[in-house]
Specification:
The chain is of the alpha/beta class. 20% of the residues lie in helices and 28% in strands. Bound molecules: flavin-adenine dinucleotide (FAD). Flavin-adenine dinucleotide (FAD) binds next to helix 1, strand 2, helix 2 and helix 6. Keywords: FAD, Flavoprotein, NADP, Oxidoreductase.
Length: 348
């Protein structure tokens, strides 16, 4: 069926599913090869795990950055790709992937110059068309673990991550959990919030030992062997009930951060006919999946010996985009020209 433009939210040479670090860099590398891109992400802002889970933390192992705050790295990736004007579809989940040329999607079924197009169906309606697809979906769909008493206050004081520390200025913040995220948020919020209380149901914390020591030394109230049993407040969260052993107490709380971990799954991508191994997409050295002109990069892909790091995802993004360029423009070279050969922002 021919799609009218009204059906299509965006069309581009390359559709990138996932606007985390690997997806953003894939869009940059595509742009450098003169290819247009559309970036689809289920989250409302770019940056993947970094924006969602640790925007304020410093990352020390990204090449060329002795230390870079998560938010700053993502801002820079967004700025780097901006000259190529990628089309962002944020807050949109890629639900389906179909080829409009053939229903037989084995690699041999499509010649490289067959002009095949891919259509990504978006959850809730809308479509994206592209000649090639780069899947940079990271952990896929991640749903925060929660407790029944927290649900009614989601978005009204209860949150599962901390996008901006300054939102919690002058608030009494309760953090629930005993892992790295819980302790790290507590340490980060201690100088900002009016008060910080960590509630953990066990006596020992799973978080890094050094961070736990810092937490006990900081101006943070730590309630171990304790559990949040109820949230209260008329319109927004005002206080939480906590059980500590046999005792019950009430804490003032205008914010509660539940750092209980996430349940992750490939989500709709699992249904796309891709070869999946251990909940990750199998790729070859060119980052090709088993579907023609569909690549996978970053934490969602797997091959023997893969290391799940931001810098590894960058290399994979560059490989995928350049291989896509050759497949979309047969006869072009695999190696891009050197960016240093261009005097200005490298627009083709
Ligand atoms: C607390 C913590 C600290 C870390 N510290 C470091 C560190 O110091 N150094 C380091 O190198 N790495 C670190 N990592 C790992 C690093 O964050 C990941 O390796 C990196 O984010 C992976 O990038 P990505 O682009 O592959 O995927 P992600 O960052 O996971 O982004 C994937 C994006 O795809 C989107 N998506 C998934 N499925 C769909 C769909 N169907 N439709 C639309 N969008 C979809 C998601 O919403 C997400 O935004 C850390 C991770 C955590 C949790």
């Amino acid at each position: 069926m021919e799609m009218t433009s009204a059906d299509v939210d965006a069309s581009a040479d390359v559709a990138v599913v996932g606007a985390g670090p690997a997806g953003l860099y894939a869009a940059y590398c595509a742009g450098f090869r003169g290819l247009s891109s559309v970036l689809v992400d289920a989250l409302p802002e770019p940056g993947g795990q970094i924006s969602a889970l640790y925007p304020e933390k410093k990352i020390y192992d990204v090449a060329g950055h002795p230390a870079v705050r998560g938010r700053e790295l993502i801002d820079n990736l967004v700025a780097q790709v901006a000259p190529f004007e990628p089309h962002y579809l944020l807050g949109r989940t890629a639900a389906s992937l179909t080829s409009d040329l053939t229903s037989d999607l084995t690699s041999d079924a499509l010649a490289p110059d067959a002009g095949a197009g891919w259509t990504i169906g978006l959850e809730g309606g809308g479509r994206v068309r592209a000649g090639a697809v780069v899947i940079a979906g990271g952990l896929g769909r991640s749903v925060p673990r929660t407790m029944p008493c927290l649900r009614p206050y989601e978005g009204r004081g209860v949150a599962y991550h901390v996008p901006r520390l300054d939102e919690h200025q002058d608030r009494d913040v309760v953090i629930v959990g005993g892992g790295d995220s819980a302790v790290d948020w507590a340490l980060a919020l201690a100088p900002v919030a009016r008060s910080v209380t960590v509630v953990h149901r066990r006596s020992a914390f799973r978080a890094h030992e050094h961070s736990v020591k810092q937490m006990y030394a900081a101006d943070i109230r730590v309630l171990a062997d304790a559990q949040v049993t109820a949230c209260r407040g008329a319109k927004r969260l005002e206080e939480v009930r906590v059980t500590i052993g046999e005792e019950e107490s009430t804490l003032p709380a205008q914010a509660l951060v539940a750092a209980l971990g996430f349940i992750t799954s490939l989500g709709p991508i699992a249904e796309w006919g891709l070869r999946v191994e251990n909940r990750q997409i199998a790729v070859d050295r060119a980052m090709r999946t088993n579907l023609p002109r569909v690549y996978a990069v970053g934490d969602i892909c797997t091959y023997e010996g893969r290391v799940p790091l931001v810098s590894v995802g960058f290399g994979e993004a560059a490989a995928a985009a350049n291989h896509a360029a050759v497949e979309l423009r047969p006869g072009s070279r695999l190696a891009p020209e050197h960016s240093t050969d261009r005097d200005t922002v490298p627009l083709s």
